[in-house]
Amino acid sequence: xxxxxxxxxxxxxxxxxxxxxxxxxxxxxxxxxxxxxxxxxxxxxxxxxxxxxxxxxxxxxxxxxxxxxxxxxxxxxxxxxxxxxxxxxxxxxxxxxxxxxxxxxxxxxxxxxxxxxxxxxxxxxxxxxxxxxxxxxxxxxxxxxxxxxxxxxxxxxxxxxxxxxxxxx
Amino acid sequence: xxxxxxxxxxxxxxxxxxxxxxxxxxxxxxxxxxxxxxxxxxxxxxxxxxxxxxxxxxxxxxxxxxxxxxxxxxxxxxxxxxxxxxxxxxxxxxxxxxxxxxxxxxxxxxxxxxxxxxxxxxxxxxxxxxxxxxxxxxxxxx
Lengths: 169, 142
What we know:
The structure holds 2 protein chains of 2 kinds. Chain A is mostly beta strands.
């Protein structure tokens, strides 16, 4: 039997924002990002050692009356050399993402499946791979930045901090 | 492949030593391409190559086989790996040109690592035949 080769799943055209973290280029669907901001307004988030919060959430920010938990993308991906300069605020989520730069908008017509050879956490991190000419750029899964259980933990910690009278804002 | 029977193998160098893969799983020997890396956690994978519109993961087995002093890799051996019902290319960096040879597949000695599925004799040279999936699995457990 002749093996069937992996083919790219069909996809409609999609606008993405290309950003960088730790020297790597990544992309995120533009429709899940409501705003790209500077670092202004970031507040340290230090819930204490008893909290089971993910360490990648080190800041919060308020925007339009809502509290956002800011995920450090460098920590998410285990990168050392990050120079944060921009925040991507995600739509319909209490999550924002700290990145180095937000470079440009681009359009992709094909989202290549992540090769099966990749079997680590990256399978959760990425929706697939996009090609810009000969450049291959992972398209992130925005839901992986702060999973439901992680969001519940940071919300709970933020509420506890607030109840103690310590400003989270 | 059956021990004692002749099969085709692709012999590839990693520094001073040569290893082999069954020829049936090798698609081609490719010139150096631009390795593109991105954050990921899969052992042995170092990135991907863009090749004729296809994205090919790169699996560098040199350090696992010959240690950290492995010399610079010059070419890519493109192997066809099977994932469930799906086949997929994987590029394996090698340090020099490869050779196709028909040899008798022999049982490996007991002292050889478990990722050696057998050996072939090229004159006085004993070449280990690598079970790529076993090697990758073992590295993943390490």
